[in-house]
Fold this protein.
Amino acid sequence: MTSKELTELMQESPVACHKALVKEYGRYVYAIVYNKLRSCGTNEDIEECVSDVFAALFMKCKFDISSENDLKYLISTIAKRKAIDSFRSLCAQANHITDTDDDDMHELVSDFSVDEHVDRSELRRVLLNKIEELGEPDSTILIQKFYYNRNSKEIAESVSMTAMAVRARCSRAMNKLRAKLVEVGITR
């Protein structure tokens, strides 16, 4: 959902806009908050922080929806900041951390980042949707080539084409896919 779509939905119905944001980004926000608060917060603390994130987002949406970009970056920034604030507050209440030094903070760092994992999963979902939009046989060719690591000859047998035709279709399909991804803001 882009800021422009959000603005249009907000003008039609603020309640519908809020529901759409929670539906689309709820799990993403929860993953970010959970990753930050899992060591010191309860489920209620995590849920309260998620609610605070959406409250802050809704207030931001009312007053500043000027960019045409994807909201994911704004949402992740708000979620991370709210989760860090909650972490500090919870730790201060429980007297877990009285003086934060590098040794204490090092214990909180994990090799596995939930929010990065969610970002990659979201990217995969968008990529597969855009590949499916290409239609047959382009979607089959790309999936077999890049997901199943098959060569042109193997793909040609499964789609009843020549290997040369598969390579040409693959090249054109990749160009179409790049254009579709640029439309949704993915440029890497």
